[in-house]
């Protein structure tokens, strides 16, 4: 990359209300890493970081929250990960900006990372690096770490007033980070009155949760939910009570509840890992009567969320990647139409003909075999969310689908996480994403849509059609592809509803080879 | 980077004697990651990996050996680290080559990572990436993970014949990897008859150990020791017996010794961490009567090592970095000569005048203040090693010093690890190393010296003076700098000996700010 870096005792130094921070200038972009934004006692609410004397270094990322299981992801090729030392002292954020001029007042984008509410960090993916987005969009990019899993979301509220909010300690950390942004981002050239929160997967879920947390009102002004909403089902089964289970295994009685603050973290790891392979992901914000009242489907749209413009969307091939697949020859694009149709009939049975008809109508540019690899995890929830806001009369919700086929394995529908490098203008250094000439074009459009939305609350980009909001009368949808298209989502929604009524076993990526080799598991 | 990557079901696939492996082609370089080279039961010798059917993926790095403490290094800015999931199943290697043509027979360079014998991995530093070196030198680069700390070097030989070599299990893994190279590297375009081992810090120590392990004879043909030898002192104190201590704490009696194979790893972490902040680094190969007989200072030069050409050297400012320093204004280059001399007199007292005279003779191009930041950890050992081989009549040992000032903090002597990006031709993407126009030149010369040494057993590069061996009569030394110089090491040796007799407290990097902020500690 041959980057020119400035890192001197007195340059670049920024004065925040709490004290001075020294970062880096990399090819003209100012970078500040590992800024402590809060302190927190385990299971308690965070407190703002204290002021300091002198200049603190901000050139190394801060530790990330301990994870119950740090899985070596079998998708580390398509989604390159940064693993990093873990520590309960994890409330750190990172900033990329084009200048620390307090007069400049640029739009601020605060990224909330994925990994459910259980894993991940603000630097977990290579693609989360904010340098290129900051430079391209002249925006201030912030990424952050916060408490996760047991540390962020264990409900101890039944065991004492001091633990009243422990089921939302992780969300409270994020809110504390947003308060830090309100107080300090001006010093980095950002506008505290124009803050966009955006996130993907678990990060999308966090954005959705913040829209339903009254105490977050005023701390952000636009919101982007990427692959963050799963359709809620009535009467879904509730898991075991994690708190009760942990206390029993730890042999901590209610009278000695404070001992849980001293339990070595590995004990949580052991107990939860013993419960089964995926239980470590079973964490999320706890509904209560004041902090978080539940999703928009449970609690209706919170008042402060109504005026917040929202982008919501997801990715065509989510959780249905067919790279590394051993399905047939592993290359879906080599199949003839006849062969693909036969496979679909085999999978779907009688509804196959109607499904194919609906698919061809919704995706006229795609091969019919893509029906077999099409997301059914996030798409129904995305439509539910769009409809809920439309039905409330809101006209500030924008829907999208990222459907650009990726070049790996002779052509693969975009996977869970695949749009992130485009959003961050980082697509050209994520190995399997790069198509010369095309990648540059598509990431320019996607990144500009996000940045213009951050600036004005309406997404749009040169080279793309007009992106209208999804309203009760106008079901507009942006389809990001080698050529972007904005059109009615009706035919796609018909397909999604039909497929929801006719479930079939998806052709999933066969991870057997990789899994055998690495012991890795899937990441959410 | 906008790299073009090929990763298809059938390309690139290489047939090894054990089975087929599928990797990547990145801008023309063939890359295979996470190749399993051995299996091992805990505390037992490794066994070669078994053959398999079909094609295994080699696109994701394999897990790294568990560490007693994964420290978040406070030097993560000057030495960017890759942290990665840890697993006892850690015998994996990675290959970079320009083509997998079995006829091509390129020199093979096998990198042994640093971190003492206790931490690290074959991908621990960004700079370990072999792509650029392979492309620049048309060589095959291999990096690898192996057992470390308790898992690699705990001496259980007193508790049963099956544990006879447990104190060298980590070294045995490396030897097994070198056997894998012998058997399989031809399939990747490498020459099994021309293998160079190279390593830095602990990795240099591993290279030195392999030169003293008879069963490694024939598995490699040249060796490079970078910052790997510390002067041995007679009568140095021996630490506590780690084996006895662990068994006592674990309450394992000799009759139940096998239970140590099932102890959860975190128990080792706890016990050793409780012993003190640096005890987790106290591991190394165990001397015995057949596997490893001791260093060349203890056991003389092993027969097989005599015909192996060796490069040995280190870095000027090792463990004396002054970036982030709060010594004076933090910028040594801003001090006047008078000020610097006064500081030296204050530190050294009476011997200051002679020290300064010797320093000016040895380093006429340097500022006098650099005397305060000059390595005294590895340099005496480097000279001892050169002299030991010279005194044995060998004429195939090459000495170097990497002394190029780095641009960070207004000019900093090169730190421990600073030469690695130059060796791997990766200097231009390690942030604080880059000086436009100069970096390209110096890394071309350093990397070519390593590659030509790998090819012919004699180091040399276009643009650099002739690099002669250090012999009994000719004390030649290569000084890598913005302009490289090859000259007699006599005046430098005089300085090193004088300074060894007049120790003073070095002006170390003051890590207080960073340490307070991150809780990080130094790495070896």
From TrEMBL, chains A, B:
Alphabetically ordered keywords of this record: Hydrolase
Family classification: Belongs to the type-B carboxylesterase/lipase family.
Source organism per UniProt: Eisenbergiella tayi
InterPro entries with a match to the protein in the record: AB_hydrolase_fold, CarbesteraseB, Carboxylesterase_B_AS, Type-B_Carboxylest/Lipase
Domain of life (superkingdom): Bacteria
A Pfam family matched in the record: COesterase
EC assignment: 3.1.1.-
Residue ranges of domain Carboxylesterase type B in the record: 11-490
Signal sequence, start to end: none
Name used for this protein in its record: Carboxylic ester hydrolase
Catalytic EC class: hydrolase
Entries under PROSITE patterns matching the protein: CARBOXYLESTERASE_B_1
GO MF terms held by the record: hydrolase activity
